[in-house]
């Protein structure tokens, strides 16, 4: 049912109750089976207590708000390519996804380097840009100020997610990459450089 800009979905059995944000305002009055399954999964993944309906609804709402914010990564084009006049430049999400794929398919990983961790790190390494945008050296923002803005943005996003294990993991992965403090971070930064060096003509295929 609808009300006050929110869609409330009851999943049988009644527990858990899903309260979705305005992201789902355009959905039909009767949600599809797939949507109900997805909502239940989000709630179970987010909740720390499956028997607490209020907590489950709150966690589900936080997860959806987080994903809604992350949507800007999909529609924000990378600044460097825009300034170079590249046709159909990649978005921030395009870039993160390609880095994740690179980590997934790369051969001959160095001994002791965790591939799964690299994939996750690649997926979240630019996630703060959902708020601050793609800041480049040409913007004239000092490196320390750029890091401060991104750190604050990341903290906000983790709070929006409701804290917990997943938010902590995202924060730690992002910080490792930012500080280049692990073998995985060093390798993912190398992937970033490789993607940057690919022929610019490839970007017109998006």
UniProtKB/TrEMBL annotation:
<dbReference type="Pfam" id="PF13023">
    <property type="entry name" value="HD_3"/>
</dbReference>
<keyword id="KW-0479">Metal-binding</keyword>
<protein>
    <recommendedName>
        <fullName>HD domain-containing protein</fullName>
    </recommendedName>
</protein>
<dbReference type="GO" id="GO:0005737">
    <property type="term" value="C:cytoplasm"/>
</dbReference>
<keyword id="KW-0378">Hydrolase</keyword>
<feature type="domain" description="HD">
    <location>
        <begin position="71"/>
        <end position="194"/>
    </location>
</feature>
<dbReference type="GO" id="GO:0002953">
    <property type="term" value="F:5'-deoxynucleotidase activity"/>
</dbReference>
<dbReference type="InterPro" id="IPR039356">
    <property type="entry name" value="YfbR/HDDC2"/>
</dbReference>
<dbReference type="InterPro" id="IPR006674">
    <property type="entry name" value="HD_domain"/>
</dbReference>
<dbReference type="GO" id="GO:0046872">
    <property type="term" value="F:metal ion binding"/>
</dbReference>
